[in-house]
Design a protein that fits this description.
Elements: H1 22-35, H2 46-65, H3 67-71
Helix pairs in contact: 1-2
Membrane topology: Single-pass membrane protein
Main location: membrane
Protein name: Receptor-like protein kinase
């Protein structure tokens, strides 16, 4: 599997300017894999997918603006 073999960078377009963090990319890939699970009951609802992606967006935003370091 791409995420377990640490080959996740192979699925990212090399032409994009801002590369996602390894953590964000792994979370997005795992979310995508859950969406295509053979067992439909194990697939997340769209609202759950949106929550996961928003969480990732929020985490990325926090990292960009340096919120954690400015609070201390």
């Amino acid at each position: 599997m791409v995420t377990s073999c640490r080959r996740s960078d192979e699925v990212v377009d090399p032409n994009i300017e801002t590369k996602p963090s390894t953590r964000a990319l792994e979370r997005e890939l795992l979310t995508a894999l859950r969406c295509v699970d053979a067992d439909a009951d194990k697939r997340p609802k769209m609202c759950q997918v949106l929550e996961l992606l928003r969480l990732d967006e929020f985490t990325s935003w926090i990292a960009r603006v340096g919120f954690a370091s400015s609070v201390q």
